[in-house]
Amino acid sequence: MSLIKLTLPDGKALQVEKGSTVLQAIEKIGTRLAQAALSASLDGKLVDLSTKLEKDASFKVHTFATIEGKETYWHSTSHLMAYAIQELFPGVKFGTGPAIEEGFYYDVDCSKSFTPEDLIKIEEKMKELAKQNFPVKRIEMRRGEAIKFFDKRNDHYKVEILSELDEDMVSLYEEGKFIDLCTGPHVSSTGKIVAVKLLNISGSYWRGDAKNKQLQRIYGISFPTQKELDEYLKLREEREQRDHRRIGKEMKIFTFNEDVGMGLPLWLPNGEQLFHTLQEYMRREEEMAGYHYVRTPVISKGKMYERTGHIPYYAESMYAPIEIEGENYYLRPMNCPHHHAIFSELVQSYKQLPYRIAEAGSVYRYELSGTMNGIIRTRGFTQNDAHTYVTMNQVADEVVRVLEMNMRIYEKVGLKNYWFRLSLPDFEGHPEKYSGNVERWEAAANELRKAAQRIGKDFIETKDEAAFYGPKIDIQSKNIRGKEETIATVQLDIMVPKRVGLNYTDENDKPAIPVVIHRAILGSYERFIAFLLEQTMGKFPTWLSPIQVKVLPLSEKFREYGEKVWMEMRKNGIRAELDSTDQTLNYRIRNAQLEKVPYMVIVGEKEAEAKTVSIRTREGKQENGMPLEKFISDILNEIKNKE
């Protein structure tokens, strides 16, 4: 039998017989690797261990230690879960059930509303099916045959998916009595799945469209060992303590209401105060840095977005147009077109450059229901937005100014654990996503690269992450689930200025086109506040805290003195609240701690007689008998210095 050559990641060659399986090839590398293997890649394509080897190829093995291995394992577990549900709830139908960044889910159409008790039953059934160690078999058939197969089972979800495919051949996977449409790969048998935990249930519209039926989405996680699952569940519990949704509720920062709509947060008084304090701070910093604040409308003619290129490149993220007197208007998805109009009105000469425009601008973007996450990703949000109009020679200096401003502000508000990413286009893989010529893109990218190098902070470069109009520097961080998120961006726009006719008169008295630097130091206020809540657990520095002091009289008898203390603080601009409810002191202290109030001022008989206060910090430190004037002076200094 003829031999074929498999090239391993380290460049070494592995000779195997043509027609042998992927698993047999892995066994030649090592028995332990074969036991741990879940799938493999042939020339970059993911395949099952049962796949037959027919030609020379690059070869990579995936265990649970790799991203691809985890995806294989978790996707296989979603099928096992669907099998268990099918056994327990006959007649159920399934939407899609992919692996996700951590674990898996399956969308289920069932007349019964699942309960936490049902999840326990499903888990037990999954373990039972796993122990039976059913082989997982790949079945290939013509698309038409697959449509007939699922149509016969009254499975309209799979029929709909199949009807939209272009491929002539499709694949199904079978384990025991369960068969599902899937591209794979999957683990070789159900016995590979050892430790499983179903986590929660949520609603999800079929295909993410609110016009379709709402299904029940069951989330889960699985691991090859119980020890790994236990460690994950402990980590998950710690993350839940840091979840901005949980902390935001405890601190009364924001809420959501079904009648208002998904992804549209309602800011409660504490949240509005936090929002306002951040906005005031940013406005002062930006005006000191030479930015001109403006205010622009949240709705504009469609012609504006056609000229800028947003409609052809960004239409899927925009809300449907509103027809007014025969013309289409859109809720704005970004502020830049309005700022360009202001530049055209105010700037004529190169002597006015750089020209900086800033706005706390509300924007609206259509996000699928399954992608939204508290206030990290919403459908309506306010950007800390600015646009600077420069010559290409001014780009590096201006970007350095912006990045240094970013770092200074993040230090003041207590944001840590972030990094810079230079986001570049991928003209080879996805040229349709980017407008303009390669040379101009490279020149712009080099200016950003120079700026990033000058600030002396490490950065990574990533292809296919640029905006359609230019490269950018993204400031990245991870949320509590380990998912990478973009906090802020510094983007170069080398295309739109020409498209919309922006120009100025250069030093030779000739018309020239500016480069636009799009910049949002906080990104959106919503997302930034979410990151602050998770990183600080709501323990903001005093200057930023929505409530800086809670005044707690020991009893009703000392309410009058408590009111005097409270009013004196309010007169001095301190955000103080009086809690003189009938609850016990310990209960009121606990409430203040849940709201992460930096200082609790406790007043009783001694304090009222001596005109002093007793101070308790949110960390639990206590100081008794402090003169009220000294406490006010100390906290005002702390606020002024943003400590």
UniProtKB/TrEMBL annotation:
Segments passing through the bilayer: none
InterPro entries assigned to the protein according to its UniProt record, in alphabetical order: aa-tRNA-synt_IIb, aa-tRNA-synth_II, aa-tRNA-synth_II/BPL/LPL, Anticodon-bd, Anticodon-bd_dom_sf, Beta-grasp_dom_sf, TGS, TGS-like
Cofactor notes: Binds 1 zinc ion per subunit.
Necessary cofactors: Zn(2+)
UniProt keyword Transcription, yes or no: no
Keyword Phosphoprotein: no
A GO-annotated cellular component: cytoplasm
Major localization listed first in the record, in broad terms: cytoplasm
Subcellular location: Cytoplasm
Alphabetized GO MF terms: aminoacyl-tRNA deacylase activity; ATP binding; metal ion binding; threonine-tRNA ligase activity; tRNA binding
Similarity section: Belongs to the class-II aminoacyl-tRNA synthetase family.
Protein name: Threonine--tRNA ligase
Organism field: Candidatus Iainarchaeum sp
Gene encoding the protein: thrS
